[in-house]
Specification:
Length: about 190
């Protein structure tokens, strides 16, 4: 596969065109809304003569997150009851086809009561989580000691926080920050995301 094709990768369920433009060929299907969607992970090929779009499956081995997978994700937004993340890696699997959007709900943080997600994760953190399901977005859980934040930056000065007596501490401005820290904190370096 050429590097240039990588940007045109499509996911299952991704819309390719409307039915008036191209009929679905192998690897594609027509939705009830009159749009044509991809059935597979692959590269769409539009045949202008036949007016058919097909999706050629990737020959290169890439993966997508599946239920039960342990994933690494970057936190991109935090509200009090949920956080939005981008999954960028699945442990023990080939590289992902791209970034996958996921949601961490406050009920999936701990078996005990959690008041607000602001005490759990912050924007820019990297978390280790488990995939619960994948519709419509990936729902992830960080319940359990092995899950939670594995890498975090100081909210004030962006220095990587270090774990000190079960608290995250900024060595530069000496702040202590609250997170739900995973057992494997600092397993991931910023460069890997
Ligand atoms: Zn700091």
């Amino acid at each position: 596969m050429e590097k240039s094709e990588e940007s045109s990768l499509v996911m299952p369920g991704e819309s390719l065109c409307v039915i008036e433009e191209f009929e679905p060929g192998p690897g594609a299907y027509e939705g009830s809304d009159g749009k044509v969607y991809s059935q597979v992970v692959g590269v769409p090929v539009y045949d202008l003569d036949e007016r058919i779009v097909k999706v050629e499956k990737l020959s290169k081995k890439l993966s997508i997150p599946e239920i039960g997978d342990v994933v690494l994700a970057r936190v991109i937004d935090v509200k009090s009851i949920y956080a939005a993340v981008k999954i960028f890696e699945v442990e023990g699997k080939p590289p992902l086809t791209g970034l996958f959007s996921g949601i961490l709900h406050i009920s999936q943080v701990s078996t005990s009561f959690v008041r607000t997600l602001y005490d759990v994760v912050r924007i820019g953190d990297i978390i280790r989580a488990q995939v619960l399901n994948r519709a419509p977005l990936y729902q992830i859980s960080i319940r359990g000691r092995e899950f939670g934040v594995v890498y975090a930056l100081c909210s004030e000065c962006l220095t990587p926080l270090v774990l000190r007596s079960l608290q995250l501490f900024c060595p530069k401005c000496r702040r202590v920050e609250k997170r739900k820290v995973a057992f494997s904190y600092y397993m991931v370096r910023r460069s890997s995301a």
